[in-house]
Input
Amino acid sequence: MNHKAETLYRGITLIDDDILQEVEEQSLSSKARSKKRTPIARYAALAACLVLVLGAALLLHYHQPGASSLVAENNQPDSISCYPAQDPKEQASGTQTEGVTIPNMEVSLDANASACMIPFFIYQGKQFIWLAEVEDPSVLGDHLGTVTGPIDVWTPAEGYVDFAGSIQGEIYSVQGSDPGFLVCLEESNGNLAYFANSVGITLVTGSDLFRDRFPVQEHYLSLEYQAWDDWYYSQGNIRSLSPSQEDTAQDFLELLQGGTFVLRTGLEELTDLIHVYVHLDSGLTLHFFLHENDTDGYIYLDNFWSTYLIVDKAALEDFVSSLDF
Amino acid sequence: MEDNRIIDLFWARDEEAVSAVSAKYGPYCRTIARNLLGNAEDTEECLNDTWHQAWQRIPPQRPQHLKPWLGKVVRGIAINRWNHNHAEKRGAGLDLLLSELEDCIPGGAEPEKAVEDAELGAAISRWLRTMPQEDRVLFVRRYWHGVALNTLAEEAGIPSNKLAQRMFRLRRSLRTALEKEDIRI
Output
């Protein structure tokens, strides 16, 4: 690496504090302006008084066997339910795992809390968190209720209060999906988004998510893919499978279901492969990040917290190599 | 907790300082580390090192602005970790970022004496102050916070290909500014 570029990096590190402060303030306001483009930022202002406190990934890490740090010793969470998977190497060898339980996020009324401004609401006592935008409104099913946002009657001591959240809108079931796991929310301006009860669930194998909750084979519509750099630079060159490649799509869906969930943290360095988009007939698109290391393949579902699927490396490479770039 | 209170805890050698600073600025520091290192394990180690350095450096230091001070510590640790890992091709975020920064390197002969980091930082700050606010934001978000281009395009509401061109022009502008100040790297 060019040491001159590194020198520049060190110089940039020492940019004056007042400039950094200005950028901090401006970038926050620009996020708020880009409502249409950034669903998470869209809700930041509303979420300011009722937030999910960030920390899932960190807390998951601290619960791992052998993980230790000064912070962990001083900041052990008591209220987080988390049962980490075994070491990924052991899992790759086929030993049993307890699975990964995605912890509930702490709900806070503290506007100054360091918070994860992710749109969410409480329904049936569960946290439903933003997953993806809805592309096809025809998937809406029954009306389930109205989320009224950070309502005055919210009382932290009572725990979760149905229909409170960081947003407002009408909740609908999604055709073909369990409303205990996946629902739609429609805002008054017509924006539609999927929300999933992804926290508090325990995932052991891929089937736990991609058969029981997202029945991908049953509702599969099409598959697209994108080179990693193309995605990184937002070039938009997303490719479709040809009709003769449907077996390839099925291979990928089987890979998903046959994988084993592990925590993102603690994994060895992963090499980026490609991005895959699986479109379901419910209008939901699942966006996957594909990686590998020396021994295994890994698949990450976008917006699905701190979990990776560990899959057979040779099968994953076969799938990637069968695609045309 | 107020920053001054956190710093007081550090000065009092109270270990609650580490809990407090990680609770308040953990997400902020993690985002920077993750943007630069692109690896969860390295990110967490970078954070732990950050709290450790804060513990070692405060006192004697008493940062006026704790948040950017911590961000600078994170960036320093991240580049060291990147160097440590580089032989194994780790840290894709910084790989990209540093390769982009090569566009900013002034031309001319090798310097007799390497520019000091602080001198370079001051020159870059001067250049930033001459730029429109939006360009300042874009530059700092990309090259200080390490935000990926596609994410930055989303934030700014600019098509990514246009953003890439704009970032290129910014880098060339910085290069010209450094050359005008006769700064050699």
Remarks:
- DSSP finds twelve helices and 18 strands in chain A.
- Chain A touches chain B through 57 residues (CB under 8 Å).
- Residues 34-53+105-196 of chain A form one domain.
